[in-house]
Design a protein that fits this description.
- The protein is α/β, with parallel strands linked by helices.
- It has a single domain, classed as 3-Layer(aba) Sandwich (Rossmann fold), CATH 3.40.50.
- Strands 3-4-2-5-1-6-7-8 form an 8-stranded mixed beta sheet, with helices on both faces.
- Helix 6 links the parallel strand 6 and strand 7.
- Helix 4 crosses helix 5.
- The termini are close together.
Length: 220
Amino acid sequence: MIVTVINQKGGVGKTTTSVNLSYYLSKEKKTGLLDLDPEGGATISYGMKRELKELPLGEKSVNIFNVEVFPAHIGLLKLELNGDVEEISNKIKEIGKQFDFLVIDTPPNLGTLAISAMLVADRIVSPVTPQPLALEAIKNLDSRLKSIGKNAYSFTNFSKKVVKLDNLSSVKFTEITIPPSRLFIEASRLGVPALRYEEVRIKKPKLANYYQQLAKVISE
């Protein structure tokens, strides 16, 4: 199953979702994480560095915490500007066949790489925060999803209050809310998923419960 995590608005926890969802899924399923964001946020969050050389998509991967991580590299910039959507989509499909779940972290836009990842996705997930610009981004995403015949699940990130919007045809809002936590910031600094950090530091982990809910929605 290919799970694409997307939102054209930065700062809503897109990469945080990709990193921790992939870590959670890897507990029971063969899981990969494909970092399509040229900035390499997901790559860095798994303790790696963005490759400073151009690589064929999916050529290099490193197994970290039982997640097969395909790091971001400088060639993604070229694909974003000049890549062919069909070719990229087909390559993502090939990579996805290796796993029970392939989680894709996308750039904070609706460009070539994001569209390619949405077209081949079995599930699309979009975190949202209760901010005007984030909500506007969800409306734009809804329009784009409608144009390509896809649907997405949205959940509230970094907030205790559920966010919902009416009159959207392709984005389904769930009741899932993932509250803010200092663990996300601390884990990011160390280059580990927050769930992993919590397992080591906290006697009674709580964050895993939220990603369990998200994984359940995705798997339905």
